[in-house]
Amino acid sequence: MGNRIYSAGGGSEPPISLAQARAHLSNDEFVRLQNAFGRLKKSQLNLDDFSRHVLGGANVPDDAKKTLFRFFSNGSDGISFDNLICALVGISRSEYAQEQFIENHTEFATWGLRPPLLTIPINDAYINFYEVMSYVTHLSVSEVQDLERVFLRYSTGGVMLVQKEWEAAAAGGCFPQMFTSRLLRVFDDNCDGEVDFREMVCGVSAMCRGPLPSRFTFLASIWDEDGDGHLNETELAKMYEEMKVPPSDRSVAASGHGGKSAAPVDVAQWAITHSNYVKELYTWAQEIGHICFGLRPETPAIELEVVRGFVHRMDRMGASLPTECNILSAVWYREWETRLTRAAAAPPMEKCEQPPPIDNSPLLANVDPFRAAAKLSCISPENACLRRDLTNAEWLAIPRVLWSALVRWHGLMRPSDEIVRRRLPHGRCPPEAVAEYRVVEGGEADDLEMHPVYVRFDRRPRFSTTGSVNGASGGETREPNPWAYAQISRFGRISDLLHYCSKELKVQEQDLRLWLLTSASNASLPSSPSTLSVASAVSSSTSPAAAAAGGGTNTSPAPSLSNGGNNSPSSASPSGAPALLDDPRARVYDVTASGGDGEPIRMLLEQRDRSTGVWPEEARFARSGASIAQSSLRGPAVGLINYGNFCYRNAAVQCLARVEPLTRKLIEKETELKQALARRPSSNRKDYKAALQYIQLVREMRTTGKKNISPVSFNDAIRETRAFDGALQHDCEEFVSFMLQQLHELLKEPPVEQQQPLPSKTSGEKKKEKEEEEDDEDVEDAEAAAKAWRNHIAKDSSLITTLFSGQLRSELVCKECSKRSACFDPFSALPVPIGFENVELFEFVIVLRDGSRPIKHGLRLPRDATTRALADYAHERTGVAASRFRLYRLSHQNKKVFAIVPLSEPLGVATHSTLLYLMEGDDQSISAVHRRMQHNQEPYLLGAASGHLVMLFGVPIMVKSEVAGPVTGRKLYDDVWRQLKRFISTPPPSFASRALDPCEDISAGFPFSLCLVDESLEWCATCPPLRFCRGCALRPDDSSPFPVATSSSSPFATPNGIPPGAILAVDWQPIALYLKYNHSRSEAYSEDPSISAARDAHIRPSSLDNCLRKFAAYETLDDLMQCKRCKKKTKWDKHMDIWKLPRYLIVQLKRFEYIREEGRKAKCKRVIDFPLSSFDASPYVKGGRGETERREEHQVYDCIALANHYGDLDSGHFIAYARSGEEREDGEQGWLLLNDCTVREVSESDIDKKGAYLLFYERRRRHSMVGGGGDSEDDVDEMTETVSHI
User: What band does 1144 get if pLDDT is binned at 50, 70 and 90?
Assistant: First the structure.
């Protein structure tokens, strides 16, 4: 909806008729206007549309805008296409209509002499880059555009080619690395170590087009290692040696440096008469230019020569070819040769038949049985099904660079004709699936995997996961349906298949899993929990010989693997049950031998429910109680099926189960505990159900032959406690504490009945007694700690307290009188703070006005810091006053200036998706931005407003407007030029790779013009908006560049007549811009050492040591507390010390904390480094019998398990790592990854410490005491005997 315009007189006739308007338009103009109006997809334009699309967003005053709208709409509410045509032609080309309009609206009087242009004429001043490059090279505009498409495939962000990308583009694995690396240096005109597109176009032109001597001149520079434009004696000797030139023919003339060196042109003249030596080098250059860089050969003869030579050379290279190659039909190749040979022999003007698009249909099976039967879409890049009876004479294997070139030149008949196959070492695939590749003389033949395997993905319809797993309310189990298929090499990985699926479904890979199915089971669950190996469940096959003997019916050949199949599945699986492919690193041949003879590998694709975190298949297995088979190598552990949002429980159970004394004694005393509970009142038994179910669960985990179990009874018991809502995600640490408390209540000693119970104390008496203990400063800490510990043991003595209980000392200190008050409390888990750092990393570039190379700096500053902090830092580093700096925010994409940030603005606002530039300037300086004008190739309505596009590039500069003496245009131009000289490329050498243009000569003038523009950077700041002026060029002479203010109210009544908010635009001449302006150099900067220091400090992981020190640090309490010594409420400091450590130390890294500055709770994702073994905790223990004695105890701990959290505050996923108890082949301690039902062996280096949340440490066995007293490790066995008295 637009603004509604009302006309006092209603509708009126248009200024000219539609027929008259049509007579003033050419057919092209009328079609352009039609297309421009049609793109708006509206029948009428409202005022907003008119302002944006007709007036081009120019800053036209509102009154004038509404007047124009009424004129165009004839007083109605909208502008139709017919009215638009009549009005546009009337004001731009009809003198009668112009006179009538100006007579009624005098504010548009200037249009009488200079009406707005309807169509912008083509002007050489606005020619584009392709036209410029075509003008100075031997290439056409279309050829330059073709080169750009190839360049964008390999360039870094579409800007430049660096060494790595250059090797991929130029070599493609098919050329000597020595040659391509030298060629990079020759292409690099400005010697900055990078090849931009301009240099690539010029280099390809010089190497592959133009006179032959010029091509040899270009290639001679390959040996010019010092880049001086000549080849000295050493460089010439190297050239002779590499081209194997005999001494008799080493006759290159030395015309440079007094006869001591040869110019490239001298080498070119020698090469013409000794072409046999340079033939191979010249052939390589032609192949790189045409095949790799995409320059289409000028004639059929050249294409025939280049491609034939390339193919024959690849045949000679053999096994040194890239791993992947394309298959090309020999029928099409012969047809291509025939037609090009005929065309090459034909007269120049005779039109010959061109080669057809590439057609590989002779290689394809007539009917793809799998695709025809399943009618599924392929989600992998490769989907061609080749004939099984193919012979080697029917196809060619060519590198992918040659395939890409042929497709660019001749096209592709159909997408399925692109066939990619993998070259493998001999003997790694079944014989019927491969073809012999190229045999290198004296070497071994390679195999080409002609027939990859098919993988069919099935998906099960969504079902509810919130119902009970024991009843029928959990949702109906439905059979999976075929969804898609993929074709993959046997050496492809499961992660590749997951990538195909995630790309198709547009979900993250971690939310997908694959299950291996058999053709017989259709993913049905087994009726009994019997187990078979996955290899048996999947293939159920024997060798063909065994099948013939009656040992089996499946004759599908198993792959011959040189590694002996050491990664083959080893899990247990019920016959016909799906097996979870939980190792993404596994290769396809690791898990199956089928899929190569038309029968696809069937996989079930599972997607996790993002709202609950539930894996649907795990919920299905939980219903049946069946075990989940897995394909990865398994350790001595069992997985726990997550059929609800129970990952926090599974991780907690897996960690607690690694506390060996607890788990062993619970299993041993299970019967006694049940008998003891049977003697208790039935009303109390339900309080211990969760603990008993935990014991049954860990016993089953230790004794089952399954690889995973479903803890249904355990979770039901947890639900009955009403402590954890099953539908929500909970904290793993809270669940660990809950389970320890449940086990403690089950195992703790009851009061002895024969003892006379002591009279109970009132709460007031207990509080008074505690205050007296805290106030008694004369009591030694050791005595108070021992008393508190005895009281704790007397009330809560159990195996849990023996294993997990430690002691903390909490102290309060009055900030006025230093009165101290301490108390001692037990703990079972030690929560240590990570701490949100209230700092951000700010990276910014300091640009000085002297034209020196900018330098990028880095600072870590508080989040509430202002830009003044950066200016102060720049003052310290450069000596320039802080007030003289201005901070720019630039877009990452188009470098458009968002704003000049005031020095008082918070930095946090200034850094979002922007680049920061701190530029030297002051209040009298003008911002200068780089612009170029470009013809609008898209349909537009009014040429004066939209015929040109303003393109911004580069980094702005600051131009000083107040200099010594009067400001002149010459001084402004000189100031800009001084700062821009470092962007301008040096003059090309004498062997330039392109033609030179007189317009490039900038010695007599400037390659740009300066003009004042408004804040939009598109319109002139001095001309009235209705002129649609893009900017009036300032004269580079001694006259004043700015308008003179005639009164104090004039818009130019500012210092030096600069309009408020005006910006200086640097409009570049097209040829100078495209051929001289170095874009990479304009945005280049040096990095100050502060960058790496700030980055390292910002991303450096914290350590457990830092967390423990933060835990013991003093903090001032917010609330005032009564001090008995001061007799008033005062401020107090509080800190805590570890007084006594338990045998099993649980450390909670407090990732979920309240950010006071922001008033919210959030997750801290900072990485914490912690030791997995030999953690000496003695420095953090303050209790004991003296500092020296305590340190001699060496309280060394080893990590036995850890729980990780991934995600955010409100949602996420818990997993666990645990020691396997077995030593790996490399001598390291083995570890297990326990991710719900997934269990996989990992190395210590594979443990992900980034998400660590709970750390479970076990103290190494010793005979000394912990802290200042307590139980020795041998006391644990004695303590566990107390359970018999329950």
Answer: very high
pLDDT of 669 over the 80 cut? yes
With the C-alpha atoms ordered 1160, 1161, 1164, 1170, is the resulting torsion angle positive or negative?
Answer: positive
**647 classed as catalytic:** yes
pTM (predicted TM-score): 0.67
Closest CA to 195 of 207, 181, 208: 181
- Six-digit token pair at 12? 């009126």
Active site residue 1164: no
The distance from CA 20 to its chain's CA centroid, rounded to whole angstroms, is 58
Listed residue (579, 519, 543, 585) closest to 430, CA to CA: 543
C-beta of residue 452 within 8 angstroms of C-beta of residue 384:
no
Reduced 3-state DSSP string for 108-166: HHHHHCCCCCCCCCCCHHHCCHHHHHHHHCCCCHHHHHHHHHHHHHHCECCCEECHHHH
Residue 989 CB neighbour total at 10 angstroms? 16
Tell me the C-alpha distance between 1007 and 1070, whole Å.
Answer: 9
Q: Which amino acid is at 172?
A: G
User: What pLDDT score was predicted for residue 1255?
Assistant: 95
Q: What are phi and psi of 738, to 5 degrees?
A: -60, -45
Q: List C-alpha distances in Å: 7 to 60, 79, 87, 1212.
A: 21, 14, 17, 62
What digits encode the pLDDT tens for the residues 191-238?
Answer: 777 788 888 899 999 999 988 888 999 999 889 888 888 888 888 999
Res. 528: pLDDT tops 80: no
State yes or no: pLDDT of 525 exceeds 90. Answer: no
Q: CA-CA distance, 580 to 830, in Å (whole number)?
A: 37
Ordered DSSP codes for 1182-1226:
--SS-HHHHHHT--EEEEEEEEEEEE-SS-EEEEEEEEEEEE-TT
Mean pLDDT value across the chain:
78
Catalytic residue among 647, 814, 1123, 1199: 647
E-state strands within 1049-1123: 1063-1068, 1086-1087, 1102-1103, 1115-1116, 1121-1123
Q: For residue 954, what are the contacts with CB-CB under 8 A and spacing of at least 6? A: 895, 929, 930, 983, 1079, 1082, 1083
Tell which residue, 957, 972, 897, has the closest CA to residue 927: 957
Would you give the distance in Å from CA 1047 to the centre of its chain?
57
- Among 230, 290, 948, 1213, the active-site one is 1213
For residues 940 and 39, give the distance between their C-alpha atoms in angstroms, rounded to a whole number: 10
Nearest to 58 by CA among 894, 1052, 1060, 944: 944
Percent of residues, the chain, with pLDDT higher than 70: 75
